Amino acid sequence: QVQLVESGGGLVQPGGSLRLSCAASGKIRYLYTMGWYRQAPGKQRELVASITSGGSANNADSVKGRFTISRDNAKNTVYLQMNSLKPEDTAVYYCNTHPSGLPWGQGTQVTVSS
Fold first, then answer.
1. How many CB atoms within 10 Å of residue 113?
2. Angstrom distance (rounded) from CA 17 to CA 13
3. Cα-flanking dihedrals φ and ψ of residue 12, to 5°?
4. In what order do the strands lie in the sheet with 77-82?
5. pLDDT tens digit string along 50-68?
6. Are 24 and 77 in contact (CB under 8 A)?
7. Residue 66 and residue 110: Cα distance in Å, rounded?
8. Rounded distance, CA 48 to CA 58, Å?
9. What is the C-alpha to C-alpha distance for residues 107 and 114, in angstroms, rounded to an integer?
10. Within 10 A of 6 (CB to CB), how many other CB atoms are there?
11. In this predicted model, what pLDDT tens digit does every residue of 64-89 receive, in sequence order?
């Protein structure tokens, strides 16, 4: 069974950048659309970005122009480059297929604060 492991989170000041990685322990079929999700305290998990097997990406309006999703199918890894971070980006970030269909990983905490 595929397991997803997210990494790269941390504490960053407003305006800063982070790059998240999501590694799959098993083979993610290259046909899957992958997504990055986030869940802030007291809020529902939301999709922030997705990328098709062919590399077409879509971002939520809240992160357009700031976040970039990418993937390396050969490495079974999905990335999320986050620039111009805002306090409202603070959340636990997860990756999964889109729509989500795999067991959720532990996520990686992103905290944007001065």
1. 10
2. 9
3. -140, 150
4. 4-7, 18-24, 77-82, 67-72
5. 999 889 999 999 999 999 9
6. yes
7. 15
8. 8
9. 23
10. 24
11. 999 999 999 888 899 999 999 999 99
Closest CA to 12 of 4, 3, 20: 20
Only one residue has tokens 């889109």, namely 98
- Would you mind telling me the total number of residues written for the chain in this entry? 114
Q: What span, in angstroms and rounded, lies between the C-alpha atoms of 92 and 89?
A: 9
User: Nearest 5°: CA angle at 109, between 93 and 53?
Assistant: 25
Q: What pairing do the DSSP bridges indicate for beta strands 57-59 and 46-51?
A: antiparallel
**What burial class does residue 13 get, using C-beta atoms within 10 Å of its C-beta: 0-12 exposed, 13-18 middle, 19+ buried?**
exposed
